[in-house]
């Protein structure tokens, strides 16, 4: 069996995770405040304005799932079980050292898991409206954001002023622009980076506390890639088939899906999950008269399968297929993620309309189906 060499940044991602465990302890012991979060709907500008660092707690490993299943149903999404499992087994220093956790009602499994998680660590839940189209949806979400602002002010004894929120919005917008610039480098022919390089770089950013550190890491990556291009270096074969990867969060399948696509002659040119370009290109209007409302509106616009209806995600993917000259679409659906699984029918229909090959992969974080996934991806890429 061929041994696949992962790019250097994959090792750096693993090292960053290890270093982050040590850094979080030092950060908190030196007076820093940390809050755990799970979702792209969490309004990060509020935490920045309160002087609080935020760290993602989404489980992306199969390691704690067996223990989580002592409490949670086995037929539950692996992301939910892994996230809870790390807290339940006390194996995640980010959960251990954070002051509290912010969850959101994106799906029934998560919102019920948060009730159990609250027994381990205080968990504050944001209640999302189920649709973006209702006339009152923006007001409901604005009230949730306002209540979170009050929670942070009371918890940390600070005042979150409009000036602090505008500055936080400016800094977050700057970071998102660098992330989008990194994504755009995959639009070249051939793409500037391997699939795993992009996926690992984005995952690595989670282990930097504070928006300035995250921005610096993405800027450094963009600058180094541009320098490599200027030197005539080529990381990807011009013959590699251009794949758009959509569906559930992909951090937990960098090796299983991302590396396997590379191994079989493909390259991910567009990462179209909730941490990808479709979310990061949404900016906050820094000059809006009501900055808290502008932040609230920005986050509610995020396209997620939990919203009814969710045409925005399908149309965005249609645009990304054209922008990145994708030759095939692979949709990765985590087992028991019912909203993305049902919505995959609409994604497949869109691909048929555009005349682009489509394949759905339903998987989890284990390695039990790795052989089957490689066989299917190899056949799909060979067909392109």
Report on this model:
It is globular and about 60 Å long. It has 384 residues and is an alpha/beta fold. The strands form two sheets. Strands 2-1-3-4 form a four-stranded parallel sheet, sandwiched between helices. A four-stranded parallel sheet has the order 6-5-7-8, sandwiched between helices. β3, α6 (108-117) and β4 form a beta-alpha-beta unit. It has helices at residues 8-29, 44-49, 65-68, 78-88, 93-97, 108-117, 137-156, 162-184, 195-204, 211-230, 254-263, 277-280, 291-300, 311-323, 338-354, 370-383; strands at residues 34-37, 53-56, 100-104, 123-126, 241-247, 266-272, 328-334, 358-363. It is built from 16 helices and eight strands. The model is unreliable at 1-10 (pLDDT under 50).
How many E strands?
8
Q: What structural class is derived from the secondary structure elements? A: alpha/beta
Series of H and E elements:
HEHEHHHEHEHHHHEHEHHHEHEH
Shape: globular
Oligomer type:
single chain
**Low-confidence region ranges:** 1-10
Question: Roughly how many Å apart are the termini?
Answer: 24 Å
Give the spatial strand order of the biggest sheet. 2-1-3-4
Strand proportion, as a percent range, falls in 5-15%
Sheet with most strands: 4 strands, parallel
Helix content: 40-55%
Let me know the average pLDDT: 92
Number of helices: 16
Radius of gyration: 20 Å
